[in-house]
Amino acid sequence: MSTENEGNAVPPAPSAPPVPVGSPETAPQGPAAAGNPPTAPLPPVPQESPAAPEQGVAYQPVPAPDGTWPPPPATPAYGDGAGPGAGWGASYQQPAPKPRNGRGGLVAAVLVAALVAGGLGGGLGYTLARDSDGGGSTTVSASDSATQVKRAPGTIAHVAAKALPSTVTIEAESTNGEGGTGTGFVFDTQGHIVTNNHVVADAVDGGKLTATFPDGRKYDAEVVGHAQGYDVAVVKLKNAPSDLKPLALGDSDKVAVGDETIAIGAPFGLSNTVTTGIISAKNRPVASSDGSSTSKASYMSALQTDASINPGNSGGPLLDASGAVIGINSAIQSSSSGGFGSGQSGSIGLGFAIPINQAKYVAQQLIKTGKPVYARIGASVSLEESTDGAKITDQGTGGAAAVESGGPADKAGLKPGDVITKLDDHVIDSGPTLIGEIWTHKPGDKVAVTYKRGGQEHSVSMTLGSREGDS
């Protein structure tokens, strides 16, 4: 509340209640003057009584505090690319008080009047409450036993309490100072942490990598291996503690649409955040990248969830109702404009996770050899958007043959111009969908391929080949 009155003079605080003037010339006559509210008639004062001097405090409207209130919110920042100190939680600095301009006496007068009025009002209020309320306070306090909430196994609170200690917030920084924040989870007792490739990409070539547990323990870490195509990476804690508890891995093939999901991560840098939702779709073809001109896309046949996932959730676990990991949160579909003034778009209920069955296989390969292994058909397909299928191009990358001689597609009889429409029972509507579906398999797996040639549909069996490393 402001204590200044915009230049209007404020009379000194009264030492006694004002006494009405007895002079007939100053007594109010008839209706109240225009613009002034009517008042109750005053009792007559004997003429012989000496008139008390007219005094009192004129009502002054209190101006609004100077400046804008509330203060503008601090701009929240997603860890990727945010500078130090940015983000929610930055303390608001109160503006310095304005000079009083010699009005200390006037301020004191108003303050004294306020204190007198406040004391009077408080005293009357207490007296009225004491006289009218003989039963004491009407609030009810919960008993100690009532506050002991039982969080049975299977409740979200119980699952979160067990899973959170095995998740970490990852901070990656490149040699030039760029970086971001993501999430990971404990994969084994040796200190391996599974996350997304795009979370640690900045720290791959000599950068800095740290992992922080919810209890505040912070460890330096190093990248063991990363798979850009799968968007999976494994890092290892340096001087890993002996009490690590790996999260249990579920079976993503058995997940059903409508199953409950729990996502853990650090959205916009807010570590240890838990959100919930359901599996809203399975086998959703997703090609994702960071949008830069040099970025290569990652492909997945994803689990779709409406659990709130935002930048910073990347690499965190997607759990089922029992607390088992069924996926790695990796990408979101969002509106085109960034939210919260950060340039980063937020969740609109379309989040995508890498199925854990695929991620487990990739992580084990990275721990074993440091390099990813991809299943392949040995044919180049168009990456243009389509709804008809995955068309084998007329020419491969860099002038190479579209169908590799002696490769799986060649052995199966496929030729340039053929359009693949199914892989096993999964409908293929484009090249990215085919790639994502192939990468859910392991090299050596046999698959049924349905394709069209000259308007005729054909089916053939194919044994998938392999490719090591990101090309």
Radius of gyration: 36 Å
Q: How big a fraction of the residues is strand?
A: 25-35%
Taking the alpha carbons of the first and last residues, their distance comes to 66 Å
| Major beta-sheet overview | 6 strands, antiparallel, barrel
The unreliable regions are 1-40, 48-130, 337-342
Instruction: Tell me, briefly, the overall form.
Output: globular
How does this structure look, described?
About 15% of the residues lie in helices and about 25% in strands. The chain starts with about 100 loop residues before the first helix and ends with a strand. The model is unreliable at about 1-40, about 50-130 and about 335-340 (pLDDT under 50). Strand 15 and strand 16 (about 425) form a beta hairpin. The protein has helices spanning about 105-130, 155-165, 195-200, 355-370, 410, 430-440, and strands at about 165-175, 180-185, 190-195, 210, 220-225, 230-235, 260-265, 275-290, 300-305, 315-320, 325-330, 350-355, 375, 390, 420-425, 425, 445-455, 455-465, 465-470. The protein is built from 6 helices and 19 strands. It is α+β, with helices and mostly antiparallel strands and about 475 residues long. The strands form 4 sheets. A 6-stranded antiparallel barrel has the order 1-2-3-6-5-4. Strands 7-8-9-12-11-10 form a 6-stranded antiparallel beta barrel.
